[in-house]
Structures are given as structure tokens and as C-alpha cells.
Amino acid sequence: MAEDVTAARVRALIESSGLTQADFAAKAGLDASKISKSLKGVRRFTSLDLARIAELGGVSVDWLLGVEGAPAVAARALGAEPSAVEVAVREATRFAQARADLAFLGYPRPPRPAPVVPTDGSLVEQGIRLAEAAVAGLREAGGDPLAHDLAPVVEEHFGVDLAVVEMPDGCDGLAWSDEHAHLILVGSTEYPTRQRFTIAHELGHLLAADDQGLHMDEDVMDPDRRRQPSETRANAFAAAFLLPADDLREAVGSEGRSLTVDAFAALVLRFMVSPSTLAYRLDGLGLISAEQREKFRELTTAACAARTGATGRFAEWIESSRQSRLPSALVRDTFTAYVEGRSTLRPFANLVGLDVESLRRALDASAEPAAGGDEPEFAP
């Protein structure tokens, strides 16, 4: 049945192109006789056949296979600017489709070990225990939740494709999970602590298997959303993941109830979280009093940076959090499929945002030997 659907859709593409079957095959860089046999059901379409047909026809491989598409976005008002949610879902759909196409071509995302999701205790306790298990597994594998750049750590250990994209205000991030893709998407922002918390928050949703499919977080700090069960657990997970109890106890030492504002500010910069997140976590662990918590949570990250003489580092952190980021493993796998002849160049070009011919020229130029022999020439 799947072959019948694929053949029918390939025929539809050929008819809509206005080309003969032979001309269509030639334009796609395929053998006309083999395509004819595939259309008659004598031969199976290969992954490269489908990749090239999809490229020429402007469709996805999944569409050719008759696979159901990703969740659709409700149509926006005519003439209106796309909302943050629409932008986020559109980008997530693009990445998830790329991952599904790669799986079909023989490049599935390798599975990663996932901690067991607790089912007993309060939602806060579940989130904390899930984070403790995640941190333990991460550190056992050589990763560090305190790494300045958290994105590659999450990608490498948890098998997640993580993207940072520019979005209108109104969406902090989303988590996407389906048969082929586990995706975290967060917005570029001038609030680096919020972005870092959102990454951990969305990881919590993925590990807890919340809302299989698409989980959208317009505002991770919204009080109404924070009361929802899955949000309560994800927020508890994020705080415990970014602020492991043993690390905090060691950092605070014997100061505890005598912790000064300057010492607290230094901890904010060390752990790269907001003063509010740190204050509540320290209070939850019994390391500071409720009075200290209320005093510390009123600080801003910028004020903490100024108190510790780290304004330059804070400015660099802001600049970094404002940059877009493609999922590195997805980029690597897409390029590998092209290099190994399983895909055309177009999927990689689409992923990195370049037209095919410009990218092809750049790749051809990079393969040329340096002028004047083996030694490269450098201009002063």
C-alpha cells in the first residue's frame, strides 16, 4: 500500500511538472528505466531516488511516502505578522521533518539513555528526582550541567536537537518529540539566564514525556502556567538540574544563614541562573532563611554582575544568548548524507539557509588546492 501511495504521488509530481517521465528522471539525475520500473511496482524506489524526486518536486520525502505530517499551525489572520507561536512551530516542523527524512535515508538519531520518570511523591519532588538522575547520568558520561554553553551538552548526552531561533516576543521555547525527533527550540534573547532556564525546562518536558508531540511554552515564568502539573514538574527539574544540591552545598559552605549579598551575587554568576531561581533553590535546600530569600530574589543579574566586577563577562553572555544556533547534530548528519551520496545538497542548503548553487561553489572552492604549491599563501 505504501508503495502504491508513493508511486501515485511521484506520478502526480511528474504530471504537474509538465515534463515527460524520461525528462523528469533526467532532470532529477535519475535513470529513466529504473524510475519506470519503480512506477510499475517492479522495483522499489531507493532513498536517493526519493530524495532527488522530492527536491525536484519541492515536497518532502515523508509526503512521497504518504506519512502523516507534523502538527499543523492554525492559520493566522490575513495580513497579520506571524505570531511567536507560529514562528516557533514552523521552525520546529522544519527541523523535525529534516530529522524524519534523515531517518528514512538511514541516519536515525542514536538513542540515548533516559532516566526513569518518578511517579510517586509531589510534582516538585518528581521534578527534583528526575533532575538528580539526569545530572548523575550526565556526569557519569563526562558532561557537566554547569557548562557555560549548555546546548551542546544537552544535545550530546540526551540525544536532543537543540536550536536557538529569532522569534517575536511571546514564546520562550518548545519541546517536540515524535518517532524520529527529540527537539528543543528556544528563542534568542538578551536575557541569558531565562534562556538557560528554558533549555533545562524543555529538557524536563522531554525526559518526563509530557505531551507527546508538541509542547509549547509561551512564557515559562507565567504564574498561571506554573500551576499546571507538567509545568510544576518541569520548573522543579530545571532548578535542580542547573543547581545540583551537592554543588550548591559545597559552594555555600558554612556561610549559609550569614551569606552576604556579594557572596550571593558571586553564586549567581558562577551558576549562571537568575537571582530569583537561585534564592528559591537555596531556601528549598535549607541553606538560607526565608528572609534572605526575599532579599536576594529582588536583585537582578545585571546588579550581581556589577557587584562582582563581571560586567564584561555578563555583556559577552548577553551577546551569546542573542545569537541563533542550528542543531549541530542535525547539521552534521544532513551533510554526512550528502557526502555519502544518500541525499542531494538541497536539504543541507535549506537547513543552513543558503541557496544550493552558492553552497556548491563554496564547497568546490574549499576543495581546491592552495595556489603556489602545497604551502598556503597568507597576506600580511
Automatic annotation (TrEMBL):
<protein>
    <submittedName>
        <fullName>Zn-dependent peptidase ImmA (M78 family)/transcriptional regulator with XRE-family HTH domain</fullName>
    </submittedName>
</protein>
<dbReference type="GO" id="GO:0003677">
    <property type="term" value="F:DNA binding"/>
</dbReference>
<comment type="similarity">
    <text>Belongs to the short-chain fatty acyl-CoA assimilation regulator (ScfR) family.</text>
</comment>
<dbReference type="InterPro" id="IPR010982">
    <property type="entry name" value="Lambda_DNA-bd_dom_sf"/>
</dbReference>
<dbReference type="InterPro" id="IPR001387">
    <property type="entry name" value="Cro/C1-type_HTH"/>
</dbReference>
<dbReference type="Pfam" id="PF01381">
    <property type="entry name" value="HTH_3"/>
</dbReference>
<dbReference type="InterPro" id="IPR010359">
    <property type="entry name" value="IrrE_HExxH"/>
</dbReference>
<dbReference type="Pfam" id="PF06114">
    <property type="entry name" value="Peptidase_M78"/>
</dbReference>
<feature type="domain" description="HTH cro/C1-type">
    <location>
        <begin position="10"/>
        <end position="64"/>
    </location>
</feature>
<dbReference type="InterPro" id="IPR052345">
    <property type="entry name" value="Rad_response_metalloprotease"/>
</dbReference>
